[in-house]
Fold this sequence. Notes:
Layout: H1 3-20, H2 33-36, H3 50-54, H4 63-67, H5 91-99, H6 101-104, H7 106-115, E1 124-125, E2 129-132, E3 138-143, H8 150-159, H9 181-184, H10 218-222, H11 231-235, E4 238-239, E5 247-249, E6 252-253, E7 256-258, E8 262-266, H12 271-274, H13 279-282, H14 285-289, H15 298-301, H16 306-310, E9 319-321, H17 328-332, E10 345-348, E11 354-361, E12 364-368, E13 375-378, H18 397-401, E14 407-423, E15 428-442, E16 448-450, E17 456-461, E18 465-470, E19 476-482, E20 484-485, E21 488-489, E22 492-495, H19 508-513, E23 523-526, E24 529-532, E25 548-551, E26 554-557, E27 560-561, H20 571-584, H21 603-609
Parallel strand pairs: 1-3, 14-18, 22-27
Antiparallel strand pairs: 2-3, 4-8, 5-6, 7-8, 9-10, 10-11, 11-12, 12-13, 14-15, 16-17, 17-22, 18-19, 20-21, 23-24, 25-26
Helix pairs in contact: 7-8
Amino acid sequence: MPLRCRLSYWILATLLLCFAAGCTTSQDEESRCESCHQGLELASPTHGACTTCHGGDPSTDNKDAAHRGMFGKKNPAAPEVWDKGCGGCHEEQLKRVRSNLMYTNTGIIKNAQLTWEGVDGQLYATRQEDVFDAKGEPLTLKSVSELDNLSGELYRKFCSLCHVGRESNQVWSGSHGSGCAACHFPYNDNATYQGGDETVHGKWPYSASHEMASLPDNKVCFRCHNRSGRIALSYQGQNDGNNSLVPTRDAIPGPELIGGVRNVTSIAPDIHHAKGMDCIDCHTSRDVMGDGYAYENMYLQTETACEDCHGSAREHPRLEAISRENDSALVESRSYQLPMTYGTNMVLTAKGRKYANVFEQDGKIWLQGKRSGKLHESKVITDTPEHTIAGHDRLECYSCHSRTVVQCYGCHTEYDLTRNARDFVKGYDTPGAFSETEDFRMLYPFPLALNQRGKISPVTPGCQTFITVIERDGRKSKDEYVARFGDRQQLRFAPFYSHNTGTRAVNCAECHGNPSFLGFGQHVIEGATIEGTLLCEKSDSKPLDGYLTMEDGKVKAFSAITRENSRPLNGAEVKKVLAVNLCLVCHDNPKDPIYQKELDYGALDRCLERSVPARP
């Protein structure tokens, strides 16, 4: 079938599906909605009729009568009503979102439990949901409102507004709607409507426009992901650490003030951001909206990996041609400037599914910007000498190519029962207010450990929680108590990708010659002993910014690395890493052939032990 005919077929099929599902492309002829809401932007060409999305009575000029029966006060995408709103036409997408971690927050709640009371054998979510687990088995996620302990309190009062299950409307540059609207109808910095409808212009809280953002830009992601791991900040080259709002430009905090009264300064951005790529150019809709299965951690839901586009040391990117008329790559790319076509070789994700915007053509890998339409050639690194170093097959790409990794040391959490605070899930104030402080923040160097995939990756504190609980009578039942993890009290680090990638790798001599990269923290070296200098307040021998100590050549780990199968490097691994530094004195080029095979660590010793003939 010729390309023009195929495109016409898809346009006709799309319109028929929209009409069949109740979606229309124009306002109802008898609708009186626009008699008040003149100048209101059309959500999209396929979202024309007000009542299809919002409900209500379009036949009357009376405000109260017209608004009676609406799906939610102003947001038909809110979880309380989204079955009638968005779900009326987008049933399959809604099923995916209901299982999605950005809505359920199951991983966040579970990790909070691990820090405080421990897990109880039940998985929780923002609301009770009947879903399917990763194996396809039915699963009921209980509402976090039923988790009546410190873990549940922490989530409901401290975490819940940052995620799409609840509207957040009082955070400068960080407010968003709830449900589907959190991404597709974004707020501006102060959550006010700035469109053409004079009846709501300038009012709060509303999306900036009534026009739907079918492909959300980076600002949408930034509104949530500027906290915790700060990946949105790192990606676009910003840092909010350790500056305490010190004036940096024209005697005001700068160069930019963000939510939480924080001042961000500039660092080098991620190379993908510098090339003009949006978050959604790498992350698939299944990453962002879910794939219909409920996962317990984000790394299980995410299907994107560096190797997908760039290849691994020994394997090129995997490809599969579009061969079906309902292929997801065809369907999703219809709104791109360059829609995909039958027969195109699409790059596969880490889970073996097709990207909708990454393809092979003329022996090269190309990524299309979903919003911009710009084509980016992806450099394939397979079989290059610097990427086939013996032993480096255990490294994640971002172990070498991360420019920075946000590290927040010493998280002091206080829970004060003498004060009331809003429970955003239950919707009213209850006794118990949380507050947090931190000791120290840094970006570089960053520690490395084995992650859940058995690969060496950066890790970051996750979390180093010191707990203080003030009872109702003012007594402290816990005072800077080190939270338990596993079977004992211990601080934690978590595998982490900072989204601050550079083309140049960390220098070989830095990684192999600086014990900070191995988890020893800031230190001094005396013989075969590595002594930490930024010590934990609860110990005079353990560094706060590390998880390893070395005394007389013996390596000992004292903090946990979260995620299954994760751990610090052991003593033998540490010694092998440091021993490479001897070779790097002469062999400082990673393309040197000696690194293509396993190093003989005794070669230098034998060389030094050889007898030298006496001079004649």
